[in-house]
Write a structure and sequence with these properties.
alpha+beta, HIT family, subunit A, five-stranded antiparallel β-sheet, 1 helix, 5 strands
Length: 121
């Protein structure tokens, strides 16, 4: 089975160890995926150098999205394992621009992966 992330043809930014591409199923305008060039199943399979390269690319991608879309905030997320929602087993980091009013109440942010835990007591 081929891996859709091993094809870097949709690259919009990159460095030696990672690249960024727009998500094929974006949850917001500008939703990017940051992907290591080496095929690895999840974040914990990456080398420290690959992790650093991804973090540097996230910062570069944020600057690009700020200029292009002017979002009001960001969510950064990684799904590691099927139980966490991972469906493509080539690690990828979601950089999701957020816009005021895109959801009724954004409080809790990434805690929303478990809906009943999203709000604080």
């Amino acid at each position: 089975m081929s891996c859709p992330f091993c094809d870097t043809g949709c690259e919009v930014l990159g460095n030696d160890l990672a690249y960024a591409r727009y998500d094929a199923y974006p949850v917001s305008r500008g939703h990017l995926l940051i992907i290591p060039r080496r095929h690895a199943a999840d974040w914990f399979d990456l080398t420290e150098e690959e992790q650093r390269s991804i973090f540097l690319l996230i910062s570069e991608a944020k600057q690009m999205l700020d200029e292009k879309f002017s979002p009001d905030g960001y969510n950064i997320g990684i799904n590691c394992g099927e139980a966490a929602g991972q469906t493509i087993f080539h690690v990828h980091v979601h950089l999701i621009p957020r816009y005021t009013g895109d959801v009724e109440n954004p409080r809790g942010g990434v805690r929303g992966v478990i809906p009943e835990k999203r709000s604080y007591p």
